[in-house]
């Protein structure tokens, strides 16, 4: 069975990591924003802006780092627009988020129009002489591009921030009950603003991953719905950082696996295989909600609610 | 309370979508040639963005060629990112109502919307790409890409060291099935034992997924990648892995200078020019055009990254198809189950059979989705 050969398995794992990383980056940023009580449906728009600006940055400077930074800045700028609308003007978050996605897709097409058909070099992969040369595991653990390590470090950092720092506790309090947090004297809107900006930065970075490391060119609409999947992953993970990693990698794994199954003639219809990652998400969601019971949702209690501080 | 929030959200979303569509239409309209009352107005409806590097991009190249040739007599407008469905009907009607006398709708899913608008505006002429419904004022046009795929199959059969081709496909529609079959028949004509691994990605455009599929095929031992999806992602993966590949819709040599063997190029400009000239001369009639290598609607990109004997073989095959001495689906065509396909005229499968193809030829080791 070809599937059990070590070299083949290694190739599959490498593909899975590449497919999962952009989802992980975007989802973990959204998790922080949602933990602060802000539902930003503009992930797809911020991602594609990150992709366009990330490509532009790398194209002009030849530097992947500059490209990644450009993507981050683009995502932050777009999320600042969202924050101004939802936090400053108390606009409905769902509507503003959808608008942000449409706006981002349009603007990225405009910015990226001049770059269509151009190409750049992909992000270099880590090479540590002794470690990367370890058979099989070396290439997986020590041979990835920088984005992969950043994404995993981000998750650990966010977990530590949310559960081991006082500021993280305040952020969660703001997301769970903004009225009480406000009454205690915490600056609800400022905390939410920073959380939204952080989410935007992560979405921009995740978007920039696509043209900088995944497929080294820019085409309008190249995110192809990944922002929405990242959004679902946050729910899938029941707002816990570690579970976002599991969700993103599970999703990436099933995606890659179904491609391999087809070429190996596993007798399952390809349409069904294509829907497997989504089906897996639904099944896990059901499992989570059954375990917690219908009353005790894992969602931050103030998620998506508008907050206008009374003076 | 909850439902009113949802209603508001949906209303807002709809309003934004409508506004986006209107703004887009307005901008595109302004981007056409300068306004003049006596010029013929020609409209185009595009499925994707003009910068998709694939299907829509090639139609846009065709429109630009048209403007270059006849720009002093016509004025063109295009609407991009028009989804197939109700929006399409509005967009087509918008063009018809704003004085466009010839309208090209460039995707299969625009078929019924175009027909509906055509019945409403009998004085306007419509041209629908890749469909099969026609009317007095509605033509259809498409390309015989299977001819090009036969040549690609031959090249692949010669160039594959492993004897395994990797084929990335979108949806199991006749257009795609005939491409797979033509490729295999071409490959088998030079290597009877050639194998093909097929992956259905169920999308026309998702660079990441196309790249993943290419990786999966290469990991499973294929050494030549061919695709019936739109982005250059698969080409770029093949380039990174040192494999060979074929482009799609447009010349993708930039993404694989040492990788691309050739590419199928959709060359719409001559057709658009001919149809607009007919409209200007008042000789436009409803037609059914299915052009291939002969009429240059389908063009091969230069044959690159292959030895001279393979290049000569490809050129000879191309010449034979153009001359009409070689038909990719010449009889007997043996189906996957080993039975010969009915051959009505004794020489090759008829156009109707090719256009509704829903079987694999012998040697395709895959089960068609949904069958």
In short:
With 311 residues, chain A is an all-alpha fold.
Structure write-up:
- The complex is a heterodimer of chains A (311) and B (371).
- The mean pLDDT of chain A is 90.
- Chain A has one domain: ABC transporter involved in vitamin B12 uptake, BtuC (Orthogonal Bundle), CATH 1.10.3470.
- Chain A is globular and about 65 Å long.
- Chain A starts with 5 loop residues before the first helix and ends in a 19-residue tail after the last helix.
- Chain A is an all-alpha fold.
- Helices cover 72% and strands 0% of the residues of chain A.
- Chain B is an alpha/beta fold.
- Chain B has two domains: 142 residues, Rossmann fold; 175 residues, Response regulator (Rossmann fold).
- In chain B, the strands form two sheets. Chain B has a six-stranded parallel β-sheet with strand order 2-1-3-4-5-11, with helices on both faces.
- Chain B is built from eleven helices and twelve strands.
- In chain B, strand 8, helix 8 and strand 9 form a beta-alpha-beta unit.
- Chain B is globular and about 60 Å long.
- In chain B, 42% of the residues lie in helices and 17% in strands.
- At the A-B interface, helix 1, helix 4, helix 12 and helix 13 of A face helix 1, strand 7, helix 7 and helix 8 of B.
